[in-house]
Design a protein that fits this description.
Blueprint lengths: L10 E2 L5 E2 L1 H18 L3 H29 L2 H8 L1 H9 L10 H7 L5 H29 L4 H14 L3 H21 L5 H17 L5 H14 L6 H29 L2 H10 L2
Antiparallel strand pairs: 1-2
Length: 273
């Protein structure tokens, strides 16, 4: 059970520390939304995952166009942010957006681990399916981006399985989960859009290892027929980056955020026992 958000209140944790009411209100909203997301029927779950891949695919499209025309990676990274703005406004979903909200709901016992596994697997699969379609359309429609696509895809293929690539994946998971937390801290759409632009720019400009985004870039390179890597390399990169993304999202953001409201976690778990 979650409490309705009210006016300002004075909150003292069991340890005697004072907690901001906004932090508790955000926790309540996240638990409520996470329970709804975990209980989402199959068809809406599939459709939101497919749309998430389309939205990021649009970001990849404009990234490759700007990179091909300007040879300016930072400018292309800024152009890519349109994909994350689309994710927000269209209310679609990425695999890596599910490391805070539904996980918090599972911790609060308003959802189950099997439901979380179902959400993760289906969302990732649908992101990749529609991302592959978007990569195909981009490569066929815009032959001028082939060189940029091969270069971008090769970068992630060349990372391999290493501590460096794992750290890049952990950072990617942390960045996207922090974005989710930032957007749930406010009801103002303008502020949410600013957060989407800032954090997606960080993701792409720093060439962090993101399972869905980098898969679409690798797909685009593969579909040109000129890529020096293959689908086995992509699959290896996907598994390694997804593992790092989960690690970063859960340990560096979600776990630490839950430590801010241990009393509310305890209350929520007791209410749902």
């Amino acid at each position: 059970m979650t409490r309705a958000s009210g006016g300002p209140r004075d909150v003292t944790s069991p340890t005697g520390s004072r907690e901001e009411p906004e932090v508790e209100d955000a926790f309540d909203r996240i638990v409520s939304e996470g329970g709804d997301r975990l209980a989402r029927p199959l068809l809406p779950l599939i459709s939101t995952g497919l749309l998430g891949g389309v939205d990021v695919g649009v970001g990849v499209l404009i990234y490759l166009v700007v990179e091909a025309k300007t040879d300016e990676p930072l400018l292309a990274s800024l152009a890519f942010t349109v994909g994350f703005v689309a994710l927000l406004l269209a209310r679609s979903e990425l695999f890596t957006e599910n490391f805070l909200v539904p996980v918090t709901a599972v911790v609060a016992k308003t959802g189950s681990l099997p439901a979380l596994a179902r959400l993760w697997v289906l969302t990732l699969a649908m992101n990749l399916v529609s991302g592959f379609v978007m990569a195909t359309l981009t490569v066929v429609a815009l032959p001028d981006v082939h060189k940029a696509a091969v270069q971008a895809g090769s970068h992630y293929a060349d990372l391999g399985l290493s501590w460096r690539s794992f750290c890049l994946a952990v950072l990617a998971g942390a960045v996207i989960t922090l974005l989710t937390r930032m957007q749930h801290a406010t009801e103002e759409m303008g502020i949410k859009i600013v957060a989407a632009v800032m954090m997606s720019f960080v993701l792409v400009a720093a060439q962090l290892f993101h399972s869905v985004l980098d898969s679409i870039l690798m797909f685009a390179g593969l579909l040109t027929g000129d890529a020096p890597y293959g689908y086995v390399d992509w699959l290896s990169a996907l598994g390694w980056s997804a593992f790092g993304n989960v690690t970063g999202g859960l340990l560096l953001v979600t776990g630490i955020r839950l430590l801010r409201v241990p009393h509310r976690v305890h209350e929520a778990r007791a209410d749902n026992d």
